[in-house]
Amino acid sequence: MSRPIPKFTAREQNLIKQCVKERYGSDITLQDVDAELSYLKASELDPKDPFLLVNLARVYQSMGKKDMAVEAFNRAIGLDPSVKLLYRSMAIELSGAF
Fold first, then answer.
1. pLDDT category, 41, cuts 50, 70, 90?
2. Which of 29, 69, 84, 94 has the CB geometry, 3.0–4.6 Å to 61, for a possible disulfide?
3. How far apart are CA 18 and CA 80, in angstroms?
4. Most confidently predicted of 30-34, 43-47, 81-85, 93-97
5. Burial state string for 6-45 with b = 16 or more CB within 10 A and e = fewer than 16
6. pLDDT number for residue 63
7. Cα gap 76→67, rounded to integer Å
8. What angle do CA 9, 14, 19 make, to 5 degrees?
9. Max Cα–Cα distance, the chain, nearest Å
10. Count of alpha carbons within 13 angstroms of residue 43, beta-carbon side
11. Cα separation, 76 vs 63, whole angstroms
12. Under 8 Å CB-to-CB from 98, ≥6 apart: which residues?
């Protein structure tokens, strides 16, 4: 039987936030970091799924990493250029309307 994952103390949370800020250079949420790592891993496991890359691009956009968002969108479109939703998602995200 597995034990529940313990909650971080306030000190541990501050250390994590400091590490994230040092790595990313700004106040990025831990949820964004977790989402980025999750979509990167998922796209490694299923490299032909363009929608994983679209979601990764959305995470990058919310983190202020516009260049990385464009790259992820372009990779997604490269996997399946026939999916118009990919182009629409890219346009919406990069315009800031989402």
1. very high
2. 69
3. 39
4. 43-47
5. eeeeeeeeeeeeeebeeeeeeebeeebbebbeebeebbee
6. 85
7. 14
8. 125
9. 49
10. 19
11. 19
12. 58, 61, 92
Region for 25 from its dihedrals, namely left if φ exceeds 0, alpha if ψ lies in -120 to 50, beta otherwise:
left
Sign of the CA dihedral running 32, 35, 39, 45: positive
What CA–CA distance (Å, rounded) separates 7 from 76?
36
What are the two backbone dihedrals, phi and then psi, of residue 78, each rounded to the nearest 5 degrees?
-60, -30
Q: How far apart are the first and last CA of the chain?
A: 43
Which pTM does this prediction carry?
Answer: 0.70
Instruction: Give the integer Cα–Cα distance in Å for 98 and 79.
Output: 23
| Alpha-helix residue ranges (DSSP H) falling in the chain | 10-24, 30-45, 50-62, 66-79, 84-95
SS3 34: helix
Tokens of 91: 């346009």
